[in-house]
Design goal:
Oligomer: heterodimer
Helix content of chain B: over 70%
Largest sheet of chain B: 2 strands, antiparallel
Number of helices of chain B: 14
Mean pLDDT of chain B: 87
Low-confidence stretches of chain B: 338-351
CATH architecture of the largest domain in chain A: 3-Layer(aba) Sandwich
Strand content of chain A: 25-35%
Radius of gyration of chain B: 22 Å
CATH architecture of chain B: Orthogonal Bundle
Largest sheet of chain A: 6 strands, mixed
Strand order of the largest sheet of chain B: 1-4
Shape of chain B: globular
Helix content of chain A: 25-40%
Radius of gyration of chain A: 25 Å
Order of helices and strands of chain B: HHHHHHEHEEHHHHEHHH
Number of strands of chain A: 20
Number of strands of chain B: 4
Structural class of chain A: alpha/beta
Structural class of chain B: mainly alpha
CATH class of chain B: Mainly Alpha
CATH topology of the largest domain in chain A: Rossmann fold
Number of domains of chain B: 1
CATH superfamily of the largest domain in chain A: P-loop containing nucleotide triphosphate hydrolases
Mean pLDDT of chain A: 88
């Protein structure tokens, strides 16, 4: 029935430079329903939200709201029309109190002055309606995550929104907070509100949804009524990528002894982590965004302190109190964000590449000529495309920047490599080169721990995949069983239900 | 062509500004003040040049270590008041306690380093903004100064003169004072430190990207503490030179110095955001500002207008170095752009 639709997208196409994210995408939302959207990391969920909230405009296609065609959606007009988006990160002002947040930009005035008492009264009314014990005068930054979400929902109600988009609302929530949120959501829906709910927690989807739409690589796989959907079907739809997207599986090299071992490691948001890595092995670490993979890497590398557990490197117990200790233990960490934690963008390649190796030298001196020689060596060896080693790092392309980061660590002659999203944001050609470089490391009997959100990459490169969820390992997949479906099953916790 | 090459060098723009300023002052004085008589031009007289050098020496010494602090992403607003504090404390020790020259030197150095280490510890362990912390220390030093002096000068009559009143006579009218020689020696030392030691590398790294530096195995905290300690050392040296020259511990001896110091560093091309800059740039920046004050006096510019002109010229100099930096980036982009197509050509046979 078209008349019970509050929101409809037709033939949406959206591309970013170099990639088409959405092609001819259709979506609709009924009045008073909870519509869940499922998909892997990078399937296009955030792009979808951004188009609905007016942050990004689709290249082609039409959006209808309440039966009327919408032109030139902006964040402001989306909000005024009645679409409120609640992003994963909090969009509140942490230093202001609840009332001030609820009415920020929408203050009740008598024309000149703010009518504070009217706002407080309205805030109380809405918070009561939501059965929340938050006081209008609480400072938002001091509230817990659940209470903050409630405030955001209250804000949507004050603006008389008719559609609320919730993006991964429950990350880092306690069980009670989740239960409360669900109660609120169900109450809203009964009063005619429509909810778009994005989650990669299967149990949440089956508890809440009226309908589920699965998207994969920017395409709608299918929309189901929840009653007609099985868990198997959902997972099957989320994976099942086009075969051409997979890289050829790397051929294994003979493995040597165990060089790295974590025993019951906890801290920095992860708990009870135990695993080993051998020479010549790539251990993949999979998990949804927010499952604690980067936090684990920080812990292993000594960037954050462990509260308990042990790390053994090459058979010896290692006390990693700072990255320097990890570097001295022949470890290295290629971080996921090369611009903010990997490179010195304002400095030349000749300053970037030798920096870590200086941590290992005994003398207090630096040798500019040797720096240039060493940098030139790695520029040649890794085929970094740059006019010279005196080029600033910020001026290179993403793939070449990533190679500079690799060069920086190769210069330390490390044995254990931690790669966090090794190929994020770099083009296909450079990606293949990075894989070749990693394979080359294995030939030299180095050990690799590879965190990745990229399924084809995990499957092609890993000897084993460990899957993380909620800060701990929930499954291990051996080489012969590495399939998208098995990994995803662990990552979204279908076993937990 | 040569000018273009010079502009590409980090210190090119500021050096060019200095040369242009000197030329401009010379021409203006020659034509408008001396009526075309070259022999009367005071600005280029040897005596005046030695004076300018002497005038910039204290600011220069302070600016040299401040350059490293600012390259690391920090700042120290307390240097001026610290000079007052250390200077009057040393004068007190000489006059009232009667310490010998050597013990008072040790005392001054220790006092400065201890306080700066304390400040460095606070900055590196609490992650408070160096701007705020040093502002606090600035006020504390001012208080200490008045507690020591009660607001009066402490004269040291002819004691402790070595640092301030020794001269190297090169010609009859051109002589280099001890503070000038000290400045040059310290600039050379800090240039060597910043380019040829791991410490220097780490300073640039921390200022360029603190989290990347930490992950690269640099002990960021201890580096910051060391850096502020070095800064304290330099403040103590500048203070001694000043005390020795003036022969008195004046509670206002370093008052407002931090502004001149930071101006010299920034005009010299060091980014307030850190990671970029060098001590020679600062040296030239200091020279430029010194020449300018001197020239404005010689040209008989009304003192109140001098402030206005100096401010305008600081902004102009920084703007020039900003624009040339942007040009360098644009050139580099063009070069990399050419590189990118080569990359594709290189990658295609491999795939």
């Amino acid at each position: 029935m078209p008349e019970d639709l509050i929101l409809e997208m037709k033939g949406i196409t959206k591309s970013y430079p170099g990639v088409t994210v959405f092609e001819d995408f259709d979506f609709d939302l009924r009045r008073g329903e909870i519509h869940c959207i499922c998909g892997e990391n990078g399937a296009g969920k955030s792009t979808l939200i951004k188009m609905l909230s007016g942050a990004h405009a689709p290249d082609r296609g039409e959006i209808y709201f309440d039966g009327k065609k919408v032109e030139d959606l902006t964040p402001r007009s989306a909000m005024e029309m009645g679409i409120q988006t609640i992003y994963q990160e909090h969009n509140l002002f942490p230093l202001l109190n609840v009332v001030e947040n609820l009415f920020a930009g929408n203050e009740v005035t008598n024309g000149v002055f703010i009518q504070r008492s009217a706002m407080v009264a309205r805030a109380k009314e809405i918070l009561e309606y939501l059965h929340s014990d938050v006081s209008p005068f609480d400072v938002v930054g001091q509230l817990g995550g659940g209470a903050q979400k409630t405030v955001e929902i209250a804000k949507a109600l004050i603006q008389e929104s008719r559609v609320i988009i919730l993006d991964e609302p429950t990350s880092a929530f306690s069980q009670t907070e989740i239960a409360n949120l669900f109660k609120i959501i169900k109450k809203l829906v009964q009063s005619g509100m429509s909810i778009i709910y994005i989650s990669h927690h299967l149990d949440e989807v089956f508890q809440l949804a009226d309908r589920v739409t699965v998207i994969r690589d920017g395409e709608k796989v299918a929309t189901y009524d929840i009653a007609a959907l099985s868990e198997q079907q959902l997972i099957h739809d989320m994976v099942g990528r086009d075969v051409s997207l997979f890289h050829q599986r790397r051929s294994p090299v003979p493995m040597g002894e165990v060089v790295f071992e974590a025993r019951n490691l906890s801290g920095n948001g992860v708990r009870d982590i135990s695993f080993t890595v051998r020479r010549g092995e790539i251990v993949g670490i999979a998990g949804m965004v927010g499952s604690g993979r980067t936090e684990l890497a920080e812990l292993i590398f000594g960037a954050k302190r462990a509260t308990s557990g042990e790390i053994h490197v090459m058979g010896r117990k290692a006390r990693l109190r700072a990255p320097l200790a990890a570097i001295q233990n022949r470890m290295c960490f290629i971080t996921e964000d090369r611009q903010s934690t990997g490179l010195f963008l304002k400095h030349t390649l000749a300053r970037n590449i030798p920096i870590v190796s200086y941590a290992l030298t005994k003398t207090p001196f630096a040798f500019p000529k040797e720096d240039v020689r060493m940098s030139q060596h790695y520029v040649d060896a890794l085929r970094i495309v740059t006019p010279s080693v005196s080029q600033l790092a910020m001026l290179l392309s993403g793939g070449n920047q990533q190679k500079v980061v690799l060069a920086k660590w190769f210069a330390t002659n490390a044995e254990i490599f931690i790669f966090d999203e090794p190929t994020r944001g770099i083009d296909v050609g450079a990606r293949e080169e990075i894989y070749k470089i990693m394979a080359g490391l294995l030939e030299q009997q180095k050990a690799i721990i590879m965190i990745s959100s990229d399924m084809p990459e995990l499957i092609a490169m890993s000897d084993r995949v460990l899957v993380m969820r909620n800060g701990t390992f929930v499954g291990e997949v051996q080489r012969d069983d590495i399939k998208e479906e098995t990994i995803l099953r662990h990552a979204i916790g279908s076993g937990a239900r | 062509m040569k000018v273009r090459n010079l502009l590409k060098h980090d210190n090119g723009p500021i050096f060019l500004t200095l040369v242009c300023t000197i030329l401009a002052v010379f021409v203006v004085e020659l034509l408008f003040v001396r009526g075309g008589d070259v022999s009367k031009v005071a600005f280029i007289k040897a005596m005046n040049v030695s004076n300018v050098l002497m005038q910039i020496s204290l600011t220069g010494i302070l600016a040299t270590s401040m350059t490293l602090v600012m390259i690391s992403g920090g700042i120290d607003l307390s240097v001026g008041q610290m000079m007052c504090f250390i200077g009057t404390a040393m004068a007190y020790m000489i006059k009232v306690v009667g310490l010998s020259n050597w013990s008072v030197v040790v005392f001054g150095l220790l006092l400065a380093v201890v306080f700066q280490v304390l400040m460095g510890l606070i900055i590196s362990w609490t992650k408070l903004e160096p701007f705020i912390v040093s502002l606090g220390f600035m006020s504390m030093y001012k208080g200490f100064t008045y507690l020591i002096t009660n607001g009066r000068e402490i004269t040291i009559e002819g004691k402790f003169t070595f640092l301030g009143k020794t001269y190297l006579n090169i010609t009859e009218s051109f002589r280099l004072g001890m503070p000038v020689i000290t400045l040059v020696v310290l600039v050379i030392i800090m240039w060597l430190v910043s380019n040829y030691t791991k410490f220097g590398r780490s300073v640039y790294a921390v200022g360029g990207n603190e989290s990347a530096a930490y992950l690269a195995g640099i002990n960021v905290r201890s580096l910051k503490v060391k850096l502020y300690a070095v800064n304290g050392l330099f403040v103590a040296i500048a203070t001694m030179a000043s005390l020795s020259r003036m022969g008195t511990g004046n509670p206002l001896m370093g008052d407002g110095k931090e502004i001149d110091v930071i101006a010299a560093v920034v005009v010299g091309g060091t980014a307030l955001s850190g990671g970029k800059g060098n001590v020679w740039g600062t040296f030239i920046g200091g020279l430029l500002l010194g020449c300018l004050s001197n020239a404005l006096n010689i040209l008989g510019v009304f003192p109140y207008w001098q402030y206005v002109l100096r401010g305008a010229i600081i902004i102009l100099a920084v703007l020039l170095s900003f624009l040339s930096g942007r040009r360098a980036v644009a050139t580099g982009r063009r070069l990399s752009g050419r590189g990118a197509s080569e990359a594709k050509a290189a990658a295609s046979p491999a795939t």
